[in-house]
Design brief:
The complex is a heterodimer of chains A (about 110) and B (about 110).
Chain A (H helix, E strand, L loop, with lengths): L3 E3 L4 E4 L4 E7 L4 E9 L5 E7 L4 E3 L2 E6 L4 E6 L8 E9 L5 E4 L3 E6 L1
Parallel strand pairs in A: 2-11
Antiparallel strand pairs in A: 1-3, 3-8, 4-5, 4-9, 6-7, 7-8, 9-10, 9-11
Chain B lengths: L4 E3 L2 E4 L5 E6 L6 E8 L3 E9 L2 E4 L8 E7 L2 E6 L8 E8 L8 E2 L3 E5 L1
Parallel strand pairs in B: 2-11
Antiparallel strand pairs in B: 1-3, 3-8, 4-5, 4-9, 5-6, 7-8, 9-10, 9-11
The chains are: A mainly beta (about 110), B mainly beta (about 110).
Chain lengths: ~110, ~110
């Protein structure tokens, strides 16, 4: 079983749609959580950290459920510029702060 | 402020040749990570350093791969001899410290081994 598993993509949605990505992690020692965004042929960039209480950044909302070892990302009112691959990432403090990346979910927002 | 700098950006080489990838950290960062990304395996951590010391190299595929950090701001990843299955995008990332800090990725080196 992979340490971080994400919804298989791709997600094809129209502009303005709401889309949700899910992610599960297997290591209960995971201490911090992130969503990274990767544009085609570019490097991953931090989109947002994920906090236990849930957090929002504009149209983006991240949720964490430690009991279920589950992380989600919700994008509201999607824009063409949101088209990218979204990577779920966990940080393992008991392994020196190692980041483990999910395979990523591809999002394509169409006009 | 300059981000993480990687060179070369693209490398095409023949099987058996030595390949050296280079990375310059963001000034003031103490941790350096080397990743490899392929379609099949996604983004994999190869090795990381903290304060120039290798902390975890369990992701290095085999003895053909080696990484060094000769000073606080620079690292190399060497593949010798290279094989076609090494073809991938190699990213370097740095962070202020290991742990909770955000990792900032370089633009990557696209390696093709023929």
């Amino acid at each position: 079983r992979k340490e971080v598993e994400q919804d298989p993509g791709p997600f094809n949605v129209p502009e303005g749609a709401t889309v949700a990505f899910n992610c599960t992690y297997s290591n209960s020692a995971s201490q911090s959580f992130f969503w990274y965004r990767q544009d085609c042929r570019k490097e991953p960039k931090l989109l947002m950290s994920v906090y236990s209480s849930g957090n929002e950044d504009g149209r983006f909302t991240a949720q964490l459920n430690r009991a279920s070892q589950y992380i989600s990302l919700l994008i509201r009112d999607s824009k063409l510029s949101d088209s990218a691959t979204y990577l779920c990432v966990v940080n393992l403090y008991n392994q020196g702060g190692k980041l483990i990346f999910g395979q990523g979910t591809e999002l394509s927002v169409k006009p | 402020d300059a981000g993480v700098i990687q060179s070369p950006r693209h490398e095409v080489t023949e099987m058996g040749q030595e390949v050296t990838l280079r990375c310059k950290l963001i000034s003031g960062h103490n941790s350096l990570f080397w990743y490899r990304q392929t379609m099949m395996r996604g983004l994999e951590l190869l090795i990381y350093f903290n304060n120039n010391v290798p902390i975890d190299d369990s992701g290095m595929p085999e003895d053909r791969f080696s990484a060094k950090m000769p000073n606080a701001s620079f690292s190399t990843l060497k593949i010798q001899p290279s094989e076609p299955r090494d073809s991938a995008v190699y990213f370097c990332a740095s962070s202020l410290t290991q742990g909770r800090e955000t990792q900032y990725f370089g633009p990557g080196t696209r390696l093709l081994v023929l």
